[in-house]
Design goal:
Chains A, B: Residues 3-163 form the N-acetyltransferase domain. Two copies of one chain form a homodimer. Helix content of chain A is 29%, strand content 36%. With 167 residues, chain A is an alpha+beta fold. The first copy, chain A, has a seven-stranded mixed sheet, sandwiched between helices. At the A-B interface, strand 5, strand 6 and strand 7 of A face strand 5, strand 6 and strand 7 of B.
């Protein structure tokens, strides 16, 4: 795979939206309304974060991620990222590549740690991947994720200190 | 104490702001920028939440709190609250009264649980109070809170399932 990760432009949302919409509508992994509209999604994915990236192969979007400050003030040294891989591109290491890229970027931006606030515990592939990439489960929110098939399942808080850390 | 808790109006922010500003500037308990300006504070405390309340005694503001949905979509059954007690009114049970009020309101609004995302572990009085009021520590974020006196200290995630629960 020859993946190119670059900063997203507003025009990239044409390719991002079908991926975002599919993942949000499934309701299995992200805390977005399942019926989210395109404008709201644009605001949440492209405008509210500090920066958004796309991962492409030969000009085709395979994934996208954002980075933002997780909490202002006394928590501002910790960032939060969200990653989406195109359903057509699963199993190719796109999420791994984006996560590695995000950790490097986070350090360049001056963050000391990264936190995922709300990982559905049923999303075992993602949990394993984040653990492999150095994240620890630091919290378990009981029945905090309303899964369309499994009902109320636990959500996990995952965390990694980045500064002076090497994979 | 004859505390009256009622929905805040925009005019109440004249009395809320000195309390908010003092607490934010101290930087010891809330994840707000220490140099936050009044307009930003108004947006965060009065506009972004689903609703905001004031706690008064004889027309004097002793405390204020907000309630909002903590995560949209699959997490929308959980709310988040933030409470501020006037420094002049500490030790009178204002936070306890506001928290009890918020738990009742949360159920009326249809929420099933309440979560505090970022409680400074050094804020032992608050941690003890939330535990007394039924919250459990469900997560510990290592060195996630940059305390002005103690440096990087852990932040706690606290959680309470409300539905079918009685104090």
């Amino acid at each position: 795979m020859n993946l190119n990760i670059r900063t997203a432009t507003p025009a990239d949302f044409d390719a991002i939206w079908p991926v975002f919409h599919t993942i949000a509508a499934a309701g299995e992994t992200y805390a977005y309304p399942r019926d989210i509209d395109r404008d709201t999604a644009y605001r949440l994915w492209m405008e509210r974060p500090r920066q958004t990236w796309v991962a492409e192969e030969n000009g085709t979007l395979l994934g996208t991620y954002y980075l933002k400050t997780n909490q202002p003030g006394p928590g501002a040294h910790i960032c939060n990222c969200g990653y989406m891989t195109s359903p057509d591109a699963r199993g190719k290491g796109v999420a791994t590549a984006m996560c590695r890229h995000s950790k490097k970027t986070a350090l360049e931006f001056g963050y000391k740690a990264m936190q995922f606030n709300f990982v559905a515990s049923t999303n075992k592939g993602a949990v394993r991947l984040w653990q492999k990439l150095g994240f620890e489960i630091v919290g378990r929110l009981p029945r905090a994720f309303n899964h369309p098939a499994h009902g109320y399942v636990d959500a996990l808080v995952m965390f990694q200190w980045l500064e002076n850390t090497h994979e």
